[in-house]
Design a protein that fits this description.
The chain is of the alpha/beta class. Helices cover 32% and strands 31% of the residues. The chain folds into two domains: 3-212, P-loop containing nucleotide triphosphate hydrolases (Rossmann fold); 217-284, Alpha-Beta Plaits (2-Layer Sandwich), CATH 3.30.70. It is built from ten helices and 14 strands. The structure holds adenosine-5'-triphosphate and magnesium ion. Adenosine-5'-triphosphate (ATP) binds at residues 14, 17, 19, 37, 39-45, 186.
């Protein structure tokens, strides 16, 4: 898969404060890449550097294998801060202006209005739009030049659950359309729902990077309960057992890589034991994220 962005030891200091510390990242074509981190972890600063609006203190990055130029930046659409639209003009007219400024084909407008589901409201004035609609228009404006990459900073900030769900659907639609997306979010849930890959930042440091799918891997926990006096001892004999804990009378067996609940069930069954409770839990991204952050202290 083609690398669209590679970041090499990218650093930004604001005086004594290190906002981004020697960041290394790679984003490949087609990924929906999430930058996850609490407030002040350096997400916006990183995106600002990538967009050429914040000067890096050190390090470098390449878009499409080359240092950023006006030409490479044209392949990137971004919704960074609250974009400025004309309140008394319609969504359509505002997009016409965006297209003109960016030298984009005005024929793209109808398509992007469709993608963000504003076609029915395109002739209404911007000032009559809800917050969610304003955010969708901003996404439409970023898409009007048909960029290869879309960058979104906290795309669902301030929206109600309905508005959040709409934006997430739109992001998925844009990704399905073949665009690479880089988004910053402090919401675990958001990253888990829309991203294919993610990086976790804490105080400017990269704490973790990898596919969202991998998150539960090797972290399967099986809960077991059975009428047997020495169940704890027996469970230790199972070769797939990692750490074993007991909580409220239920054993929690951390599975070794490659072992699953059915293997444990068979092990017990072969010894004449029928489990009265057997359940699999995957360690959630949230838990792992919190662990990553706790480890850094
Ligand atoms: N222009 C600036 N001058 C001084 N410090 C700054 C500036 N911009 C950002 N910072 C500091 O850099 C750090 C990272 O900020 P940044 O906005 O990148 O974080 P963030 O992850 O986007 O946070 P949030 O989730 O709140 O948007 C913070 O400590 C912030 O105060
Ligand atoms: Mg930010």
């Amino acid at each position: 898969m083609e690398t669209v962005l590679s970041v090499n030891k990218l650093t930004k200091n604001f005086g004594k404060l290190c906002a981004v510390n020697q960041l290394d990242l790679e984003v490949k074509r087609g990924q929906v890449f999430g930058m996850l981190g609490p407030n002040g972890s350096g997400k916006t600063t990183t995106l600002g550097m990538l967009m050429g609006v914040v000067n890096p203190t050190a390090g470098s990055f390449n878009w499409f294998g080359e240092p950023a130029t006006n030409l490479t930046r044209r392949k990137i659409g971004a919704v960074l801060e609250h974009p400025i639209f004309y309140p008394y003009l319609s969504g359509q007219k505002n997009l016409e202006l965006s297209a003109m400024i960016k030298g984009a084909d005005p024929n793209n407008i109808a398509k992007v209005l469709g993608i963000v589901e504003l076609t029915a409201r395109k002739d209404d004035k911007y000032k009559t739009y809800s917050l969610g609609m304003k955010q969708r228009l901003a996404i439409a404006s970023a898409l009007v030049s048909d960029p290869v990459i879309l960058i979104l900073d906290e795309p669902t900030n301030g929206l109600d659950p309905m508005g959040i769900a709409e934006i997430r659907e739109i992001i998925k639609r844009i990704a399905n359309d073949g665009k690479t997306i880089i988004l910053a979010s402090h919401l675990l849930d958001e990253v888990q729902k829309v991203c294919t890959h993610f990086a976790v930042l804490k105080r400017g440091n990269l704490m973790h990077i990898g596919p969202v799918d991998d998150v539960g891997k090797g972290e399967e926990i099986v809960e077991v309960q059975a009428y047997h006096d020495d169940l704890g001892v027996l469970l230790q004999e199972f070769i797939g057992s990692g750490t074993i804990k007991k909580e409220n009378g239920i054993f929690q067996v951390m599975m070794k890589e490659g072992f699953h609940s059915k293997d444990l069930n068979r092990f017990l069954f072969d010894r004449g034991i029928v489990a009265s409770h057997l359940a699999t839990r995957k360690k959630s991204l949230e838990k792992q994220f919190l662990e990553i952050l706790a480890d850094a202290k």
